[in-house]
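Z., the sequence and structure:
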Amino acid sequence: MSKYEPLTHFLIDKDSHEVPMTFAEIEKVVGFKLPEKASGIRAWWSNNPSNNVMTRAWLAAGFVSERVDMGARRLVFRRKVDRRPSPTTVPTHTPPSSPGRSLGLLTRIRDRMAGTTSIPSGADVTAPTGEVWDADR
């Protein structure tokens, strides 16, 4: 169980498309102070699931962070989809990655890009697009 799981449940319970919050409100929800990095490093609030444990908490709830105002210590969580995720989609444990495990470049790229594009069913990604690429041009 992640220490940020209360944030996941808090966001899942919201009916609105956007949930504006101050850093202090987030601290109240999770029950402890956020790390100093949260106030000093803008990238801490990125939506990269490899970023930190808290990022996975809001992503698991179906939200992304945006409009982060570091000076005012506030941000907006925006729902990625119109429907609320079911509580069964909330991870209770994320296994740590093995430090000695070496992933190939293609696997790392695929993992980072997961969910950013979709290919319609039946599409042939190897078919010519109609464009002509001329090496002499």
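The first strand starts at residue 18 and ends at 22. The radius of gyration is 19 Å.

Let me know what you think.
H.
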